[in-house]
Please model this.
Amino acid sequence: MSVVSTNSRKGAASGLDAASAASKARLRVWLRILKVSRLIERELRERLRVEFDTTLPRFDVLAALYRAEKGLNMSELSGVLRVSNGNVTGIVDRLVADRLIVRVPVEDDRRAMIVRLTAKGKTHFLELARGHEDWVNEMLGSVETSDAEMLIAQLGDIGKRLDQRKAIDK
Amino acid sequence: MSVVSTNSRKGAASGLDAASAASKARLRVWLRILKVSRLIERELRERLRVEFDTTLPRFDVLAALYRAEKGLNMSELSGVLRVSNGNVTGIVDRLVADRLIVRVPVEDDRRAMIVRLTAKGKTHFLELARGHEDWVNEMLGSVETSDAEMLIAQLGDIGKRLDQRKAIDK
DNA sequence: TATTAATATTCTAAGCTTGAAATAAATCGC
DNA sequence: GCGATTTATTTCAAGCTTAGAATATTAATA
Model:
């Protein structure tokens, strides 16, 4: 989580050079993102548990399926959520057991399964989503809309570049 | 991870009212933070695994201990890392087994244990930290210093307020 | 058509994470 | 000093997460 200064190896004549200072600023950006992210995530987990007896990964799956009118197959689902393939299997298993989603065999590909919300799942998700938006709004209540727009733009750029990087790596 | 619009319940005469728009902007801020955070975290995990055969939680513990000259007891450690008490026990167990840290009984409190880096642990951590800063710098390479400062300030404010909230709740 | 390669999913082992319960020791109130 | 409460830590059960192996099926190609 926290980290230390180790960047005096660029060999400038004295003290910190520009590259090192920039590097440190970026490191601090990351540490702040991480801190905020963990604080919010922790609170969301807690509230989902206490008020709805569920978990964040379950919510994430339901949200992804709610947005996908026709459902998603397992690969698409793990892609959207950015988690491993095998991971989704377990969460889906439990949601199926709770009758919130169903696995439907794909007509012309016997390997694949499409996962979809049930009516019960949809109703359930809408309750969760209402709470979720309220909680986030409450936690970020101090953020003015103008600041929010700026953060959205900045973080959007960063995210986009990270996505591109990843695409290139492969 | 992703979420949906459910905030048309504030009863404005037509369309979205100001509160609802603000709420949605904040929700998007959160979703962007979450996305960036997960992308970066995933890459850091991957690199720590491939290049150093270790994990992010282990790195976090080592970093916290590196910053604490005299070590930390288990409660302080879980406090700094913002994870549960029991969680730290397991990670510390494994780091102790690898001789990277030691548990030292506290003289005047037989319940407590202080955890400290060994010389080996310190050396190991410095290698990790060097890689870590480089990777972050690379991933956020596109962020100009002026933007970085702004993000640091904004996210710092958000983090501070969330900390305060938490303190008040208790 | 027969192989080979690619794709979709699940399974497995190991570690992470949590909240709650269990221990053990210190401290507080009397 | 003694009982009750608080504090420090570990243990436990359940679920999350990952990478990699195993299965099954489809697609490509020779």
